[in-house]
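Feature request, filed as a ticket because there's no other form

It would be nice if the structure record came with a short human-readable summary line next to the C-alpha cells. Right now we just get the raw output. Example of a typical job, pasted below so the devs can see what we mean:
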Amino acid sequence: MSSTQPIESEWDGAKYGREESTGVIFGMEADQVIFIAVGVVLGVIVVMINGFPWGLAAAIGLLIVFGGIGIPRIKGNSLIGWARIFTRSKSRQRSGNDQFVQKDDGVEIDLTDDGEVEIVEGPEFEIMDGPVRRGDDTPRDKKNRIRPGKPVRMSLPGEFGELLVYQLPGGGAFIYDPVLKVATIVAEVMTEKAFQLNSFEEKEDRLREWVSVQSTIARIPGVDIVQLSDQTTMISGASIRHWYEEQILKAPTVTTDDGETARQAGADVDPFMHQSLVETIMSVENQPVHDMWMAVVLSKEKLNERIVAAGGGVAGFMETALSMMGTIENAIPTSGAYITKWHSPHTLAARTRTAFDPDSAIQVSERGESGVAVKQAGPMYAAPRDIKTYESDGALHRTYKISEWPHSQARLGFLEKLVFAGDFRHTVSLYIKPRDTAKALKANERDRATWSSNDKIRDKIGKQQTARKERQIQDLVQEEEEVTAGHAPLKLICVITVTAETDRELNANCADLETRAAEANLELRILYGQAEEGFMAGALPFGKLEV
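Raw output as currently delivered:
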C-alpha cells in the first residue's frame, strides 16, 4: 500500500509575523507612556495638596481615568492615536480643506436642495497641455544634459496638489514632490502566464525569482518605497467589441486567388468563429480587466551624490531616474513579469482620472496613448463622506489595510483571494519599504531588549506571559535569522480600495472582499478617519503611503 508523500518545499515553515506591538513598555507606544506618566504626576500632586484619605482617593480615581484612556488599543491604535486622527479630520472639516473642487475652466458646479455638491458639466478631455511632448522632443543641451522645461502641476486634493510633472527623454513621466524631495516613476506591468496555471515547481521558481527581484530593487541606492498594484476594472462588452473591430481594421491584408482583398482577421478568416466571438462579447454586460503598475519612489537626499555627478538639480535627478529605470527593467523579467512601458504624463493622468471617476474609464481608454491632459487628472469634486468612505465624482471608495498576515503556513499565491475577490472595481496595492540592514538589525536588537525588560517587570509584579507575546518574540528571532541569512529587510504594507456607485453596492462589494480575505487567513482593518489618505495610497499610482 503506497501513500502520497507531501512535496517538500524550501518555503515550508515560512510565516508572517504578527502586527508589531513592542512599544516602549508593555506594548504601549511613547504617547501612551507620556499620557499615563502625566496622570501619575497629577495624582502625586493631588495627594500632596489634599493629603490622606481624600487626596489618595482622588489620585486613584485620576489614575483610573488616565489608565482607561491611555492603555487600551482598539484596531491597532491607542485611544490617543484615534483622538489625533479624528482631531485632524475635524480640523480639516472646519477649515474647509477636506473638500476639493476643481477650478479649471469648463467645470460647472451647483448645489442640490440638500446642500450637496453636484457636477453639472465638466470639461472635455484635451489632448495636449503645456510641457507634455513626444519623447523624442525632450531636449538636451550641448553637453547632453536634460533640459527639463516648465513642469505642470497636477490639480489633485490635499498635498498631492504639490506634485510637479516632467517628461523624461523617451516619454516617461517624472513626478516630483518639491516638499518631500522625492520623485516617482511608474511602469505598466504584465505577466507572461497566470500564477495559478503553473505547476507547484514552477510556482516555486517564480516565487524564488520574485524574491530576488524584490531584493534587487530594494538594494538599489535611493529607492525609498515601491508600490505594486493590481486594479480590477469593469468595462462593457460594447467597448470590448469596439476594440476587437479596431484590431481587425489594423490587421494586414492579402490578395486571394480570386483577386479580392481580405484581412487576416475577423470574418475574412473564419466567419463562424467571428460571429460566435462577437455574440459572446455582447452577451456579457461587464467584463473584468486587470491593470497592473509599479511605482518606484526615489529619494533625492539618498541620491544626492549621483544627482550632483549628473549635473545637479531636477535635470540631474531625471538623469539618475533614467539609469535606474534600466536597472529595474533588467531585473523584473526573470520573475515571469515584464514592463510593457513607463507611463507618460498623459497615460499616468488618465489612470489617475479614472481612479477618481470610474465612469470615465471607457471614454479615457478609447483615447489610447493620448491619455488625459495632466491638469485634468484630478476629480471635479472629492471629499470624505464619513469616517470610512471617500467620495469623488459620484463614486464611493472604502480602503482596508491588512492588519494581520497569515500566521500559519501561507500557501503560494494567497493574495489572489484579494486580487480576484469579485467582478467589481477594486485595487490591491502592496507597498515595499526597504530598510538598511544594519539599522534593521539594530531595531530588532532594541525590540528584543525591550521585551526582555518587560518580562523582568512582569515577573516582579506577578503578571503571566501570554501566547501572543511569546509569538511576537519568536517573530523577532525569526526576523534576525532571515536578515542575517542575507534576505533584504523589507517592510510590507498592503492596502485595498473598493469602489462602487451606491452605498448598497459598496457594502456588498466590501462584504465579498472581507469573505475572501478570511479564506486567505488575512485580517483586514478599515482605515477609519483616514478615508482620503487610504484612497490616495490604494488607488493612485504615486507610491504615497500616509496611513
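Something like this underneath would help us a lot:
The chain has 15 helices and 20 strands.
Residues 152-236+286-435+488-539 form a domain with the Vanillyl-alcohol Oxidase; Chain A, domain 3 fold (CATH 3.40.462).
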